[in-house]
Specification:
This protein is of the alpha/beta class. It has 2 domains: 257 residues, Carbon-nitrogen hydrolase (Nitrilase/N-carbamoyl-D-aminoacid amidohydrolase, 4-Layer Sandwich), CATH 3.60.110.10; 195 residues, HUPs (Rossmann fold, 3-Layer(aba) Sandwich), CATH 3.40.50. The protein has 16 helices and 19 strands. Strand 10 and strand 11 form a beta hairpin. Helix 8 crosses helix 9 and helix 14 runs antiparallel to helix 15. The chain is elongated, with a radius of gyration of 25 Å.
Length: 546
């Protein structure tokens, strides 16, 4: 039997276009010899729809689109992810996350998701009722075990929440010939290979082949990396699909693999691809054509500009250079060099005079007070005003270039360099910014070497560098990873990892105090296990000290 896997890039709520994409992939798989075609979790809906599912017409329109797809199917079945009502009567949630088995113009079978994730960026218990039974579905003499995403991610994976059920074991006990898994599994660093390892465990444990179909593309902050694959009953790879690419593949289900599952590429490639994919889809799905950003001559804006060019093409990226009276000439030169290397348009808008006017306007109010961060932030906020003016005038999405290290400790100006419509690298620690910048230059030098090698600086005080105010980034990023992503207590970071206590306590306090600032920052693209926003929900006003 030949199985077709269709990696679909769905847009949330765009039922007609999603249905068209599904049909195109379905027909292409049939032409390639498929006897059964899989699409990802919520392929008809787009994941995650969040509170849209509560709108009275949302599920109705989804079901109308499903009926349309059913009408278009023939003898070859099509599995489609969608949202349906649940007759909950006196208890339970009103909706279900489901997969429909479509064949010969009808919905032949429906399967509901059993394990509903409610952690990190997931919140499915808010909307859906879990399935109360896991039953194989027989088709053409083959017992199909149909599962949805989390259904194969049960207790024994890392720090999973405790589930009382194991859908794979329930299906195995009832006798299945293959486990099918339709997923919308978001990307994070290291996850593609972790996911492949998980599939190997499932195949070996169930003793049957496993077929995994994952979504691609991005919706808001979540990026889906694809990397769909199929394994034989011994956990060896039968077929694999590329990451971050809408495509399909047809393979023979009961063929034998020769090696354990191995995802192509490394963390640097995957993170960069995720950022490119996330930026592209956010811009295009939001209806923008072009983006703009500030070019500072530093590595952060250089990396962001490179990602933008790879995502949208050089003609759709505008670089703006906004020097103040204290901006070193070498930063201006590096910004121009970057623009030339990338082939993007560039404009200079000096802000020295505007800064002088703003400060002189405040002289009488600030009389007798020493200069401090207030005056420094005026520069950043004037830049933000000019950047937003350009964005408004030309309907060009403004990209913010702040990295995760800065956002974590609040080393950024609210209503200044935090302005923008998308914070492209806000989940990328500074040490990884350098790794990605070097990765960009491996194929073709785009980022000026000085942007990578010079001491990083906020550029708000003449001659000052980040090292004057912050711990070394190698130290800072490791402490931040432990404190934010692994939620290790500050005392344990000091004791178990041998970091200076004063440094750890300073970092911890800065993280805690700047939640208000991060809450007002632009949406960012998630590439780590715990991004700010949906991935980390902390009160702004609170008195707990770790």
């Amino acid at each position: 039997m030949n199985i077709g896997i269709a990696q679909i890039n769905a847009t949330i709520g765009d039922f007609s276009r999603n249905a068209k994409r599904i049909l195109q992939a379905y027909r292409a798989c049939i032409d390639a010899g498929a006897n059964l075609v899989l699409t990802p979790e919520m392929s008809l809906v787009g994941y995650p729809p969040k509170d849209l599912v509560m709108k009275t017409s949302f599920v109705d329109k989804c079901k109308q689109a499903l009926d349309y797809l059913a009408d278009e199917t023939g003898e070859v079945p099509l599995l489609v992810g969608y949202v349906d009502y649940y007759d909950y009567q006196n208890s339970g949630k009103p909706l279900r996350n489901g997969v429909a088995f479509l064949q010969n113009g009808k919905v032949r079978h429906r399967v509901w998701k059993t394990l509903l994730p409610t952690y990190a960026s997931f919140d499915e218990h808010r909307y859906f009722e879990p399935s109360n039974v896991c039953e194989p579905f027989e088709w053409n003499g083959i017992k199909l075990g149909m599962t949805i995403c989390e259904d194969i991610w049960f207790d024994d994976f890392l720090e999973r929440p405790t589930y009382k059920r194991n859908p794979v074991e329930e299906l195995r006990a009832k006798g299945v010939d293959v486990i099918l898994n339709m997923s919308a599994s978001p990307f994070q660093k290291g996850k593609p290979q972790d996911r492949a390892n998980r599939l190997e465990v499932v195949a070996c444990g169930a003793g049957v082949p496993v077929v995994f179909c994952n979504a691609v593309g991005a919706n808001d902050s979540l990026v889906f990396d694809g990397h769909s694959m199929a394994l034989d009953a011994e956990g060896n790879e039968i077929c694999s699909m590329p990451g971050f690419e809408s495509c399909f593949k047809v393979f023979s289900l009961f063929s034998k693999g020769t090696h354990p599952p191995k995802v192509r590429g490394n963390d640097r490639e995957h993170i960069y691809q995720a950022l490119v994919s996330g930026l592209h889809d956010y811009v295009k799905k939001s209806g923008f054509e072009t983006v703009c950003l500030s070019l500072t001559g530093g590595v952060d804006s250089a990396l962001t500009a490179s990602i933008a060019v790879h995502a949208l093409g050089e003609k759709n990226v505008m670089g703006l250079i906004l020097p103040s009276a204290i901006t070193p000439q070498q930063n201006i030169d590096d910004a121009y060099a970057l623009a030339e290397n990338l082939g993007i348009k560039v404009e200079m808008i000096p802000i020295s005079e505007s800064c002088q006017v703003a400060e002189s306007s405040l002289d009488s109010v600030f009389e007798g007070l020493a200069k401090d961060h207030t005056e420094e932030n005026i520069q950043s906020r004037i830049r933000g005003m000019f950047l937003m003016a350009y964005s408004n005038k030309f309907n060009s999405l403004l990209l913010t270039s702040g990295n995760k290290s800065e956002f974590s400790i609040g080393n950024c100006s609210a209503y200044g360099d935090m302005f923008g419509g998308l914070a492209v690298i806000s989940d990328v620690p500074k040490t990884w910014v350098y790794k990605l910048a070097k990765f960009v230059n491996e194929k073709k030098v785009a980022i000026p070497s000085r942007s990578i090698t010079k001491e990083p600086s906020s550029g708000l005080v003449a001659g000052q560098t980040d090292a004057d105010r912050l711990p070394p980034y190698e130290v800072l990023d490791k402490i931040l990873e432990l404190y934010i992503e692994f939620q290790v207590a500050a005392s344990d970071i000091v004791e178990d990892h041998q970091f200076d206590e004063a440094t750890v306590r300073w970092v911890q306090r800065r993280v805690d105090l700047n939640e208000w600032k991060r809450r007002q920052s632009p949406l960012g693209l998630q590439v780590t296990s715990r991004a700010f926003g949906m991935g980390r929900r902390v009160p702004i006003v609170q008195k707990f000290v770790d």
